[in-house]
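Long-time lurker, finally posting.

We've been working with Dihydrofolate reductase family protein (Danxiaibacter flavus) and I want a structural starting point before designing mutants. I don't trust myself to interpret raw outputs, so I'm hoping someone here can both generate the structure tokens and explain anything notable. Sequence follows.
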Amino acid sequence: MRKIILSVNITLDGFMSGPHGELDWHFSIWNDEMGEYALQQLRDVDTILLGRVAYQSMAAYWPQAFTDPDSNRKDMEFAQRMNAYSKIVFSNTLTTLEWNNSRLAGKDIREEILTLKMQAGKDIIMWGGVGIVYTFIELGLIDEYRIWVNPVAIGEGIPLFDNLNKRLDLKLTNAMTFSNGVVLLNYVLKNDLFHLNVM
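Top reply, 14 upvotes:
Generated this for you. Predicted structure of Dihydrofolate reductase family protein:
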């Protein structure tokens, strides 16, 4: 069975973004080392889950990104995978999608994801946005949390875990420290360990 992986950057004080969606604190310290890991992460999946805002931002960028033959090989590979992979978009307002291999999710999110997880293929990665991340956490649809903790505190913003309707008991399965101080923490739900081990 395929896994749903949430890969998300947060600040040291637990925010996914500033109060108005600001991500400058993240992009200012991104480096090649993180980029290499992000590319390997992308190689291990074949489907991307996105909310409306994340979709529109990425759809405006990736189709034209790194198309110059002189672009860095890894950058070109990342762009090619982003454009080629299946992208499932969760939105109540969008009616059409223009980015290659994109489709709107059905209205029943749980059914959509359970069906998707049973299909053949690699794992599935989620990059946001905020609303769909909250929904997936609430519905218990995330199998693995990959939390990139950035060495910055911003004081206010949009938290990763907000309005939880139940306690989440997580088990750390891996940790990695990058040279810029970012720490990547991989967690699974403790009560999902058996399921994880038998897949």
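Before you design anything, note these points.
The longest helix spans residues 32-43.
The beta strands are 4-11, 15-17, 45-51, 86-90, 102-104, 123-128, 144-150, 158-159, 170-177, 183-189.
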